[in-house]
Automatic annotation (TrEMBL):
It is found in: Cell envelope. It holds the Pfam family SBP_bac_8. Keywords: Periplasm, Signal, Transport. It comes from Kribbella aluminosa. InterPro entries: Bact_solute-bd_prot1, SBP, SBP_1_CS. Gene3D superfamilies: Periplasmic binding protein-like II. The lineage of its organism: Bacteria, Bacillati, Actinomycetota, Actinomycetes, Propionibacteriales. Belongs to the bacterial solute-binding protein 1 family. Residues 1-24 form the signal peptide. Its main location: other. This is ABC-type glycerol-3-phosphate transport system substrate-binding protein.
Length: 453
């Protein structure tokens, strides 16, 4: 199978070959959070306390984090936060693993759920549930009701009895970006709402001598297309479900787009951005990327052409289109009562409505709080950033890329499976694989990898 070589900055990461995280591709059996995290929680700090916070944000995002940390320290003068950029998620994950092995982890880190499930095997992850529930220091019923329900669920873990081993921080969704000027030249005044319409638009764009869809073979994009067909990569019972008729339709779509010559495989994985460059240069009418891409596109495109975001086309027209949802949370590691309380105070602050509004406006991330979206300040921001406004409207009906139950995460996609998804999607888009062959191989691999968890 010939596909583009992969160089990724991945959403979900696995570190192999570490004794600490043996069997880390899923739920490897019950592992308790840190025993020390179950100690009585003090009402206040007993002394001035310093905590470390590892993150992945640099540039404007890093400046935003630094500004929020300073604001937190001003409101909490007994806490000093040593915020540190430690590289992308891959580097961060490796450094957290090494620090756990050395017995000196950070107090707080940015992390995706599968990484948290790796870290819990160290028995150093703090169960945040008692902090969430603690009168005064915790969150009120109104606060919890304000946070997006799926965000709460995907930071709880069913193997730990629904414990919060992380807490919501950032939300992103997969969206369709389109060149409105190019669509107008092709005879269309709005983006397509169904995949059938998408194929018709693509034929018209091809007639202009342009690429219709510059494709990035990406697991989240593939999942988003699956959701648009009413299916999911994993069933509610945690088993792989790529063998459904809906997935056959989804793979068939990719095959037709490739066979028609309207679609080009430009990139594979998050780190490769040829598809974005083709869109920015006006060569392509469509790309599918994260909502976080909007600020980059706005700066890169400027006033060269009119563009916007839209929901991915759906199998059938609907007033409630769906897509894939993702984004990291915040986890804490066991230390002493003062540092753990200070860590929770920072996590609580970063998830507050005021902070989420500032963070969203500064970075293009979507807020985890429902009240932020309707607040005047953020509503004004969305008027100035229509692509982000579209993304924000999609969050309520978006799906996290795994299975969620009443007590949180039931199953997630192992990284090896995500790699296979990208390889096989790339195989279809490059013409190296038929849709049926790709679907069959993916279901077989997914069944094996999900069972091996």
């Amino acid at each position: 199978m010939k596909v583009l070589p992969r160089r990724r900055c991945l959403t979900v990461l696995v570190v192999a070959g570490t004794a600490l995280l043996a069997g880390a591709c899923g739920f490897g059996g019950p592992n308790s959070p840190a025993a020390g995290s179950n100690a009585p929680i003090p009402d206040t700090l007993s002394k001035k306390t310093t905590i470390s916070f590892w993150h992945v944000y640099t540039g404007a995002d890093g400046a935003a984090i630094d500004g929020l940390v300073k604001k937190f320290e001003a409101a909490n003068p007994n806490v000093t936060v040593q915020a540190q950029y430690v590289g992308g998620f891959n580097d961060l994950n490796k450094k957290v693993v090494s620090s756990l092995q050395a017995g000196s982890p950070p107090d707080v880190t940015v992390a995706y759920p599968p990484n948290v499930l790796e870290y819990v095997k160290s028995k150093r992850v703090v169960d945040l549930t008692p902090y969430v529930d603690k009168a005064g220091a915790g969150l009120s019923k109104q606060d919890l009701a304000d946070i997006l329900p799926n965000e709460l669920k995907r930071n709880r873990y069913s193997t730990q009895g629904g414990a919060y081993l992380s807490f919501p921080f950032a939300v992103n969704v997969a969206v369709l970006y389109y060149n409105a000027d190019l669509l107008a030249k092709a005879g269309f005044n709005a983006p397509p709402k169904t995949w059938a319409d998408f194929e018709r638009v693509c034929a018209a764009v091809k007639a202009l001598g342009r690429t219709c869809y510059s494709a990035n073979a990406n697991a989240s994009t593939l999942n988003a297309i699956g959701y648009s067909y009413g299916t999911s990569p994993v069933a509610a019972d945690g088993k792989a479900s790529f063998g459904t008729a809906q997935w056959k339709d989804a793979f068939g779509l990719l095959g037709r787009l490739t066979g028609s010559g309207t679609t080009r495989l430009a990139s594979t994985g998050d780190a490769q951005t040829v598809d974005q460059n083709e869109f920015v240069s006006g060569q392509a009418a469509f790309i599918i990327r994260s909502s976080r891409t909007a600020p980059f596109l706005s700066k890169a495109i400027g006033d060269k052409f009119a563009w916007n975001a839209a929901a991915l086309p759906q199998a059938t027209a609907t007033a409630r289109p769906t897509t894939a949802l993702y984004g990291p949370g915040l986890a804490a590691f066991a230390s002493d009562p003062d540092r753990q309380l200070a860590s929770w105070q920072l996590i609580k602050f970063l998830g507050s409505a005021d902070t989420q509004s500032t963070w969203a406006k500064s970075t293009g991330n979507l807020p985890i709080r429902r009240s932020v979206v309707t607040a005047p300040a953020y509503a004004a921001y969305l008027k100035q950033h229509p692509a982000t406004a579209v993304s924000a409207s999609l969050v309520a009906d978006a799906h996290w890329e795994g299975a969620l139950g009443d007590q949180g995460i039931v199953a997630f996609l192992p990284q090896k499976l995500r790699n296979s998804m990208e390889d096989l999607e790339g195989g279809i888009l490059s013409g190296a694989l038929t849709p049926d062959a790709a679907q069959s191989q993916l279901q077989a691999q997914a069944t094996r990898l999900m069972a091996a968890r």
